[in-house]
Amino acid sequence: MVKSAVRIATLDQLLDALDGLFVDGSDWTRREQEDPWVRIFSQDNHPLNSNLPDANLVSWFRQGFLPEGGARMALDLGCGLGRNTRWLARQGYQATGIDLSAYAINQARGRSSGGAVTFREGDVLREHISGGPFDVVYDSGCFHHLPPHRRLSYLQTLENVLKPGGLFGICTFAWGQMGSEEDDVTLLRQGHLEGGIAYTMDDLRQVFSSLEFIEGDVLQIESGQTEEVFHMPFLHAALFRRHQ
Ligand SMILES: C[S@@+](CC[C@H](N)C(=O)[O-])C[C@H]1O[C@@H](n2cnc3c(N)ncnc32)[C@H](O)[C@@H]1O
Question: Where are the chain's structural domains?
Fold first, then answer.
């Protein structure tokens, strides 16, 4: 009898094989028949239906960590309905939001913004992102949904899209507040992501150790901040810079 099987010989084949461990729809970071994000984004009162920017993004801008937009380009990975992409555009960036969910991208395009904003449907783990490299790359809430092995794809994407000297901001579930605290091997073995992974600030510093750490904190309103912002006690954010 002739048997046919994929014998893993490349990193992509290994990553695809590991994707296959997550069979019950618990991996919300790849294209499946059903888009899991529709049921979240279609709820009018869901927090992610907000138009407000993340508190940390506004704070980084106010503190001068994020430069004025000017002709600079910003990329929002897993932009959802585009609240942070639109805010970046309003600060003068040529802002691009990219998301796996066709539903989210259609909704994002329908929302008024102001400034130069583009929304694209795409898979940031498996597809080339054109138009870069970008001065600022931001991710709010996409990375913590990745299965452990897909961090490798994510780091490769970051390497491809972030300019030398560019800034990378990330907002994730905070360890002890929200997200699974199982170790990576357990998550892979059980083939279930439990709704997302909890990260400590040290985890983020370790995963993105090729970048210079600038600062990290929980999402909170700064004293004296008047702009309305998005903040949740179970989220924290970190800012990094790519070496020149
Ligand atoms: C928790 S939502 C956050 C949405 C948005 N950043 C916000 O904070 O309002 C995570 C988003 O990541 C997107 N996403 C997940 N995996 C992705 C992938 N492989 N490529 C692009 N987008 C992805 C989802 O479609 C979803 O819109």
Answer: 11-241
**What is the pLDDT, as a whole number, of residue 225?**
73
User: Is 113 in contact with 90 (CB distance < 8 Å)?
Assistant: yes
**Dihedral sign computed on CA atoms, order 112, 118, 120, 124:** negative
Strand partners of residue 169: 138, 239
Q: Give the CA distances from residue 90 to residues 135, 163, 185, 200, 220, in Å, rounded to whole numbers and listed in that order.
A: 16, 21, 42, 31, 21
Q: What CA–CA distance (Å, rounded) separates 225 from 209? A: 31
At the top level of CATH, the class of 11-241 is alpha beta
| Ligand 1 centre distance from Cα of residue 100 (Å) | 7
* 33 token code pair: 């028949």
Q: Is 157 in the pocket of ligand 1 (CB under 6 A)?
A: no
Alpha helices in 4-101 (DSSP H): 11-19, 38-41, 55-62, 83-90
User: How far, in Å, is the centroid of ligand 1 from the Cα of 64?
Assistant: 27
Residues 93-102 pLDDT 10s: 999 999 999 9
**Whole-angstrom distance, CA of residue 59 vs CA of residue 62:** 5
Distance of alpha carbon 174 from the chain centroid? 14
